[in-house]
Design brief:
Blueprint: E1 2-5, H1 8-16, E2 25-28, E3 36-39, H2 41-44, H3 54-60, E4 65-67, H4 71-88, E5 92-96, E6 99-102, H5 108-111, H6 114-129, E7 133-137, H7 141-151, E8 156-158, H8 164-168, H9 181-189, H10 195-200, H11 203-210, H12 212-221, E9 237-248, H13 251-272, E10 274-285, E11 298-309, H14 312-326, E12 332-344, H15 356-375
Parallel strand pairs: 2-4, 7-8
Antiparallel strand pairs: 1-6, 1-7, 2-3, 5-6, 9-12, 10-11, 10-12
Helix pairs in contact: 4-6, 11-12, 13-14
């Protein structure tokens, strides 16, 4: 079962503020660089969609109401939603704050048929949280996700094993996992426009034209998706990034953002009990080189440390070094700091010959963590709101976050 909250952020805002109910609203930044993170279904009737520039959204829907968003509230609601999910199965794979796969294997004897379970789940979320959710049920993950999308808004669709090919055949090939716009254009050039075209093609022709990738997407087209629901997956990296309301070209002006991102990443590392061997600096150029949102080139620079760390000062110093030695030459619109090469604390305890400074930083970090846990991050200071204004909100789950 794939459960996907309908316009989650927007639905929460409409629930919290009765004046917004029935109104076209968008959660996200309303400025020149603003991006729509979520749009209510009233706004979607005008063609407003997530990831759309706010200027374009306002052009399409003049009465559109922008809401800045409240991530703390969305996270609290997400935890309540996932608590309900786990009442129906112990095997829940979190995809984002508002979306999950739920393994129903072996639940029918206790809870009833899959469609009964899906309907009960929808009713509980509606009754307890006053939020809509769409559910797709199928033998495999990809088909369940497509089914939940087809059930929107606020619906349920079950696809039986014998109807998988019939359901998938009339859909465009872009609905297959891993087939983006470039791959879709490539398939169209070869005469594959619908999933049914891939179902009918023979493997030899697909392999000759597309190699192993052709065989893989043909299997997905037939509904042969062998990926299981994964209740927990180890993170391979931690990162924080920021899209600026206005381009920044002054490197010194970027350093406060690097330090704030580094401290945020470090807090999450410590909360998860891991350290990182490699620091990554990421930026997106302000100079467009192609069409669309992806038309701004992205660059990364990384440096492996002599010893794994969970210290924000060390991460910040390393990222600032990358900035100074091999950073952007012109204005940028996005800046990020990340860490990878993770190891657990037990694998890298402080040694006998670690410096007093390292031990002092460790004690200081524990103290700061206790303060932020109790009083929030504002207790230790942040960049002024006007400096740190984001153009949109993230829907991704951040490991080690509050």
């Amino acid at each position: 079962m794939h459960a996907d909250m309908d316009a989650f952020y927007a639905s929460v805002e409409q629930r919290e503020d009765p004046a917004l109910r029935g109104q076209p609203i968008a959660v996200g930044g309303s400025g020149p660089r603003g991006v729509v993170t979520a749009a209510s279904y009233e706004a979607r009737q005008y063609g407003v969609r997530s990831a759309m520039p706010s200027i374009e959204a306002k052009r399409r829907c003049p009465p559109l109401i922008f809401v800045r968003g409240n991530m703390a509230l969305y996270k609290r609601e997400s935890e309540k939603i996932f608590t309900i999910f786990q009442d129906f199965s112990p095997s829940v794979e979190r995809v984002s704050l508002d979306e999950a796969f739920i393994d129903l294997t072996g639940t029918s004897r206790l809870l009833g048929s899959p469609s009964t379970i899906g309907q009960r789940l929808r009713e509980r979320i509606r009754d307890e949280l006053s939020l809509p959710v769409s559910v797709g049920i199928a033998p495999v993950k990809m088909v369940a996700k497509i089914a939940s999308g087809s059930a929107k808004p606020d619906g349920l669709l079950e696809i039986s094993a014998q109807n998988v090919k019939t359901f998938l055949s009339p859909l465009p090939v872009g609905r297959i996992w891993g087939v983006g716009p470039v791959a879709q254009a490539r398939l169209a050039d070869l005469g594959f426009h619908l999933i049914g075209d891939l179902i009918e093609a023979d493997d030899a022709s697909l392999e000759g034209a597309l190699g192993d990738w052709g065989l893989e997407i043909a299997r997905l087209a037939r509904g042969e998706d062998f990926r299981e629901v994964e209740p927990y997956r180890d993170a391979v990296s931690y990162s924080e990034e920021h899209t600026f309301a206005s381009d920044i070209s002054d490197r010194l002006a970027l350093e406060p953002f690097i330090r704030e991102h580094a401290e945020s990443v470090a807090r999450r590392l410590r909360r998860s009990g891991v350290r990182a061997r490699t620091v990554v600096l990421k930026w997106k150029s302000a100079r467009r080189t192609g069409p669309g949102a992806r038309g701004y080139p992205v660059f990364t620079r990384r440096l492996t440390l002599p010893k794994p760390t969970d210290d924000g000062k060390t991460i910040a110093q390393t990222a600032i070094r990358l900035l100074k030695e091999n950073g952007p030459q012109g204005a940028i619109r996005l800046l990020g700091v990340g860490c990878t090469g993770l190891c657990h604390d037990a694998e890298d305890q402080l040694g006998l010959f670690d410096s007093q400074e390292t031990e002092r930083r460790s004690i200081l970090n524990k103290t700061v963590d206790q303060i932020t846990q109790r009083f929030g991050k504002a207790a230790i200071g942040e960049l002024p709101t006007q400096q740190r204004e984001q153009v949109g909100l993230s829907t991704q789950v951040k490991r080690g976050d509050d």
